[in-house]
Amino acid sequence: MTADDWARTWIGGSTPDQITVAGRDLAGEIMGRLTLTELTYLLVTRRDPTPGECRMLDAVLVSLADHGLTPSALAARLTYTGAPEAIQGAIAAGLLGAGSVFLGPTGDTAQFLFDALRSRDAGADADDATLRDIAREAVDVRREAGLRVPGLGHPIHKDEDPRTPRLYELAATEGLLGPHLRLLRQVATVHEEATGRHLPINGAGAGGAALVDIGVPPEAVRGVVLIARTAGLVAHLVEEASRPLGMPLWLEVEHRASEQSARRASEQSARRAGEQSARRAGER
Questions:
Q1: Taking all residues of the chain, what is their mean pLDDT, rounded to a whole number?
Q2: Partner of 178 for a Cys bridge, out of 68, 78, 114, 213, CB 3.0 to 4.6 A?
Q3: Confidence (pLDDT) at 284
Q4: How many separate domains does the chain show?
Q5: Rounded to the nearest 5°, which phi and psi values hold at 13?
Q6: What pLDDT shows up at residue 273?
Q7: Which H or E run includes 42?
Q8: Residue 201, Cβ density class (10 Å: 0-12 exposed, 13-18 middle, ≥19 buried)
Q9: Helices 221-242 and 105-119, interaxial angle, to 10°?
Q10: Which pLDDT tens digit goes with each residue over 188-237?
Q11: What is the domain extent for residue 11?
Q12: Residues 41, 76: one domain?
């Protein structure tokens, strides 16, 4: 290896007459042959997915594409309101909101489960008793630190997240119900026993567990799911262009804030007038 040999990548490159991606000719070997889901898996793991792995990755991506007027969608729409000439900025604004509360739990759960299994050197053949012990220890550590257990609870789906049983069903059908999905079930059970509170496994957490089970590196999970959310954000911006929500939303918030400020100013003025009147009465 020469001193300059570090400046290269396996992911892709181009010459005057060819583009290569993952070491393959883009036009001849990939376009019309691989789906975006298959190419995503290939680029992230450096191997072709099995049909079952492709189906699971696709299901997870679909499950996370959009959930309505979430903070990420609102951020994208409001940014578009201010800069409709730069749709890329609006999409970026929406993606930047992927954190510990929205969308980010997919990656957080994947890393949490991966670390818990690695701490006990547990593999794919770990039995339920072993997974239960691992779950109890992992939950205890989070609770003692005052931290939320990733993958549990949802602000709307209080009893069951409708995506979760479907992901488990698909994983079982494809023979891909691996240790991370199985551990997540134990985590939910142990947490409920310890706290007395029922927190369902959320779809984001189940998605993160499923992705690690099919070989996606846990540190890549949060990035992979942004591919899904990008599709949803583009849809929001297409709708925003034809039926604007950002401008009316801004004006409504501005109106309410102005009303509140005026009300507070009036209350303060009345209070000062009352205090002055009281002082004058005391001086007589």
A1: 91
A2: 213
A3: 56
A4: 2
A5: -175, 175
A6: 56
A7: helix 36-45
A8: buried
A9: 170
A10: 999 999 999 999 999 999 999 999 999 999 999 999 999 999 999 999 99
A11: 6-48
A12: no
